[in-house]
């Protein structure tokens, strides 16, 4: 069971996110409702996996659907205030009060989920120490925080388009194909 859930580690990680990047990547410029689509890859010592991501965010709700590269839905995460639910085909739903707890129960360890809220916006989590490197245009190139190195490989329209997150032997790659703020 744990091996199957390892495939969805990035999905669980994303379930803890709360906001999307604004055009200038400043702390006060965050959308409260948005939808994004993209592609997610994961590489570890033992496997390399990829899939599509559809993510709808509202302050009170996140819905994340992961699909195979051919479009078959394989996991759905829903976060409402006070509960996160993971649904996968042919398995009973898994529930926890938050994404960190769900991941701990499903995988046996947890990741700093709260960091991704800021990292996707090309910002460090302001509540914890971080080392930030900027390029000549003032855009964030790298954030090192909580043992993770987040590299911003491409921007589009002032927002991160391609980023990688590495911690030890685990690497997550995220390509954001579309953002729609509401």
Q: Structural class of the helix and strand makeup?
A: alpha+beta
CATH fold category name: outer membrane lipoprotein receptor (LolB), chain A
Number of domains: 1
Strand order of the largest sheet: 6-5-4-3-2-1-11-10-9-8-7
> What's the helical proportion of residues?
10-25%
Report the order of strands and helices: HHEEEEEEHHEEEEE
Mean pLDDT: 77
- How many DSSP H or I helices? 4
What characterizes the major β-sheet? 11 strands, antiparallel
Q: Can you tell me the CATH class?
A: Mainly Beta
Shape, please? globular
Instruction: Estimate what percentage of residues fall within beta strands.
Output: over 45%
Give start-end ranges of low-pLDDT stretches: 1-29
Q: Supply the CATH architecture.
A: Clam
CATH H-level superfamily? Lipoprotein localisation LolA/LolB/LppX
Oligomeric form of this entry?
single chain
Q: Whole-number radius of gyration?
A: 15 Å
Report the strand count: 11
């Amino acid at each position: 069971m744990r091996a199957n859930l390892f495939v969805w580690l990035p999905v669980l990680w994303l379930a803890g996110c709360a906001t999307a990047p604004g055009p200038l990547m400043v702390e006060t410029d965050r959308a409260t409702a948005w939808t994004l689509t993209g592609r997610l890859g994961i590489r570890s010592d033992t496997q390399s996996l990829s899939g599509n991501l559809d993510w709808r965010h509202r302050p009170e709700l996140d819905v994340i659907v992961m699909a195979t590269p051919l479009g078959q839905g394989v996991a759905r995460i829903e976060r409402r205030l006070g509960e996160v639910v993971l649904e996968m085909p042919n398995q009973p739903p898994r529930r926890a009060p938050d994404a960190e707890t769900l991941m701990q129960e499903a995988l046996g360890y947890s990741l700093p989920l709260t960091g991704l809220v800021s990292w996707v916006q090309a910002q460090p989590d302001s509540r914890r120490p971080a080392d930030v490197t900027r390029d000549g245009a003032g855009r964030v190139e790298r954030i090192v925080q909580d043992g993770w190195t987040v590299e911003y490989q491409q921007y589009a329209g002032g927002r991160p388009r391609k980023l990688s997150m590495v911690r030890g032997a685990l690497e997550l790659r995220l390509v954001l194909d579309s953002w729609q703020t509401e």
